[in-house]
Amino acid sequence: MADDISPSPKTAAVPSSAEERAGPVREVSVPAVVRAAAMLRLLSATPTPLGVNQIARELDIIPSTCLHILRALTAEGLVAVDPATKRYRLGLEILTLAKAALRSSISDQAQPYLDEIVRKFMVTAFAVSISEPEHYIVTAKSNSPNAIRLQVDLGSRFPALVSATGRCVAAYSSLPPRALKAQFDRLRWHRAPSFEEWQAQVAAVRTQGYAVDDGNYINGIYIVAAPILGPEEEFRHAIVALCIKAGWEEAQLRELAEMVRASAAEVAEGLRLSVKAVKK
After folding, report:
1. Do residue 83 and residue 110 come from a single domain?
2. Same domain, yes or no, for 261 and 144?
3. pTM value > 0.85
4. CA–CA distance from 262 to each of 90, 116, 173, 266, 280 (Å)?
5. Which tens digits make up the pLDDT trace of 120-142?
């Protein structure tokens, strides 16, 4: 979930920027693999196909190196190229890999609970998983049937500490306060809480089993997230619900939060992961 909402008569989108989704190219032991991953993320974040020079410029890669990697990805079906325009987009083989990654995963376990949250409260509900140390990704979703709703796309990728989910991530992070503060300062909010206020909200996650973002991240949007932990009590996943807050009573919001917490506990049991933090 990113910096703003783009409303339409039927849907209000909750986007993530191309910069957040593509991310910088990080030099590690296998630079070509890191660059290939960055290219795939960039292509997934861009609505139109891109040319070699544009991809190279966006990721700060030498054009000839960029072309070699794109040709390899094209040969594997992960990228497709239009012979007429020489522009690249994601290939259909991505779908095969995505289906395999989601099979018997959080998406399968969470979907019935997400659907039930939506049926009862008419909100948008989704599951997220930590995809790398500084990002989480949407892995399952259920949209409200309301004419005006908030749209969250599968595969959307967000900074790990942002919104209600970010408070859950921070609650079980091993990072020292100084490192958390550095990440927190890079986040973009509609109305940012102070770091001290945010820390208090993070601490509350361990006792109440969920976190709330009340209009901080997106104006007028209430977001509740409940964590699912790994064997070492590290953040793995979360169940999340969001709604336009206007018209809701506080008792209803608490009921929604409790259902999200209880759903996370049930999903955690199905995945045989820790429920210590989400059971009361």
Report:
1. no
2. yes
3. no
4. 37, 12, 22, 6, 9
5. 999 999 999 998 778 999 999 99
